[in-house]
Amino acid sequence: MLAQRTGMFKSSGTAAARAAVKAAADAGKEIIDLTAGEIWSDLAPTIRDGAVEAIRKGVNRYTDTVGLAELREALARKVSRETGEVWQTDEIAVTSGAKQALFDASMVLINPGDQVIIPAPYWTTFPAQVQFAGGTPVHIDTRANSYVPSIADIERAVTSLTCAIVINTPNNPTGAVYDADTLRGIARLAIERNFWIIFDECYADFTYDGQAHHPIVSLVPEVRSRTIIINAFSKSLALTGWRIGYMAAPKDVISAVKALQSHTTSNPNVIAQHAVLRHLKEGDGAYEAQLRRQLVTARQVGLSALSGLHTVAKPKADGGFYFYLDLADILPAGSGKTADDIVNLLLAEAGVAGVSGTAFGDPTGLRLSYGIPPALLEAGLGRLVQCLNNQPRI
Ligand code: PMP
Fold first, then answer.
1. 224 lines ligand 1 (CB under 6 A)
2. Dihedrals φ, ψ of 61, to 5°?
């Protein structure tokens, strides 16, 4: 018999989508995979050199549980630059990816029975981690508001049990970028109603068409004492497999995270830490600029392919590297059909894989990643447009 707790976690929806792609490919179908939450790219030279040098030097020991002091110092400088506030080393914890930083945050902030507001559609791991900590996710539907929650809706969702809100901007899966006024409103509410802000800015580097990412602390410095900044190099340096993320938060939060990590994973991989440290010290921004150019091109290629859609509205795709489609117009009400059915249809008839919004708390959404080579993207979206245009609009 497994523990009751296991009932709380199904494997994540995005992992299920990847499994479906593999099954179709194993069955001999040629599939264009638009499910990836990562960017196709070479390694940054600074990352490669930093890792190779650490190996050459024979680096092999544990580091401080929450990361090398020098790396934490470099991260404190990075967060200071980004927020316009001064951050100290003891306000930074290095983690095994943003996922661990988020997990740690749930574990050290949430009491059983606490409520955590999570705007929907949401990245599938947010509610799962809140539940592990004994908390209750409270969702706000953002679909009618271009995927950005209205302050009135958030205000209505706040209760005496509200412990935190999870803000993810630029957003996975929707690509929405929260505007400064909304973030100021969230900060004001958090102060007035006394709750934490878990601020996931993993996609901060990727905004388009004049949109800008706003770190919430840079807009409202007073909110700093109740904000947990979550970030990682997984997306910004296309480094998903290396597992380096971090948290910037008040000292007592970091101390609790350090104790938690000391009993769970200990320090993140030491070679990866040295690699990121090298990049922070010596990176000149060229790699990031090239990654951005790559995504700008892919987004343009993708949007132009999607401009052929007749049955479904074109996505805005302000940030991140996802196109998010609302399929409501081709899902007959009362038919019980969801985006899952369209995802299966696309896989079977067009040989294209996307992630159903049901994984993100949105049964009418479809996420398509454009972090893949442009030629593949163009071919995949071309097939998708043809297939969706054959669906009757209702
Ligand atoms: N936050 C968001 C919004 C994400 O999309 C992801 C990865 N898909 C993560 C956190 C986790 O990132 P990491 O790989 O650094 O754990």
1. no
2. -100, 165
